[in-house]
Amino acid sequence: PEVWALRARNLAQADSENASWVCEHELTYPEARWVRVYVFALKPHWVIIISDITQEKQVSQKRLEEEKFASIMMLAAGVAHEIGNPLNAITIHLQLMDRQLQKLPTGVQREKLKQALDVCSAEVERLDSIIDNFLGALKPQPPDFQDVNMWTILGEVLAMEHAQMEDLDVRVEFDFEDTIPAVRADANQMKQVFFNIIQNALEAMDRGGILYVRSSCDDRELHIRIEDTGVGIAQEDLPKLSQPFFTTKASGHGLGLMLVQRILRAHGGRLSLESSAGRGTQVTITLPLKSPHVRLLG
Q1: Under DSSP, is residue 296 helix (H, G, I), strand (E, B) or coil?
Q2: Could you tell me where in the chain the CATH 3.30.565.10 domains are found?
Q3: Burial class (CB in 10 A: 0-12, 13-18, 19+), 228
Q4: Which of 10, 15, 45, 55 is surrounded by the fewest CB atoms within 10 Å?
Q5: Pairing state between β 146-148 and 183-185
């Protein structure tokens, strides 16, 4: 109401001053669109020009996302370098301590020190692995396209998540078409996509939840829908989910969904979400059935 009240005041002002004004407005029905409205008075008439700027907005949004991502990459590389240097120093000194430990007489004390050193070494290796995986996930890689059966990929990811689903008493219900055509895709990258989405769904559900996995396809595209019975997402938070470091969870880095969208974009696909607070979330992954035009994301 406030927006349209402002529009009415602008219109009245344009009429009284024989002036003009322009505004941009988001339409939500029958589909989400952005329009730019030009209004000027040509007494005794009005001239109103409405143009669809949805694509312009999308291009601008993608450009902003890429700029943010580039900044994150620079920050991540700097942080990884700063963390890596002391980790290397710790590794070297742990090795020196281990050599000195070998010179001590055998006994319970030496064994305890050895165990403590082994724990420290293992944790340093784990930190190194976390840094490598983090940078590897952020750095865009061109997809290695092969003929991939999405049901096979989904099955492997669900097998990875089986222990957690069993612990949460989550039931999976499938509704797949009898024949799912192969898709040109990178199997490992698609595993990352499904893992992130299913993990988010599991974290959103209480014990006894249901995970629905459905598929459908037309002449051009394959659609895979993953729906949970979790807490859902507030409407005002939905547009922010692809932003770096934005998360509705108590823990998490807020990068998973952004990486998912980048992977799907490189495959010529797209991601859509439907959700509301308290009613669960439905995520739809859409992939082209023909070889996509690859866009390398730098």
Answers
A1: coil
A2: 146-288
A3: buried
A4: 45
A5: antiparallel
Give strand pairing partners of 26: 34
Both tokens of 250, joined, read 């108590």
Here the tokens at position 227 are 């729906």
Q: At what angle do helices 187-204 and 150-160 cross, to 10 degrees?
A: 50
Residue type, 186: D
Tokens of 254: 């807020």
Q: Round to whole Å and give the CA distance between 186 and 188.
A: 6
pLDDT confidence bin for 11, thresholds 50/70/90: low
Lowest mean pLDDT among 24-38, 52-66, 190-204, 237-251: 237-251
Could you tell me the pTM of the whole model?
A: 0.58
Q: How far is CA 90 from CA 76, 118, 119, 121, 160, in A?
A: 21, 13, 13, 9, 33
Q: What is the CATH number of domain 146-288?
A: 3.30.565.10
The two structure tokens encoding residue 245? 């470091």
Q: Where in the chain is the domain with CATH 1.10.287?
A: 60-137
Q: How far is CA 3 from CA 8, 48, 205, in A?
A: 9, 18, 37
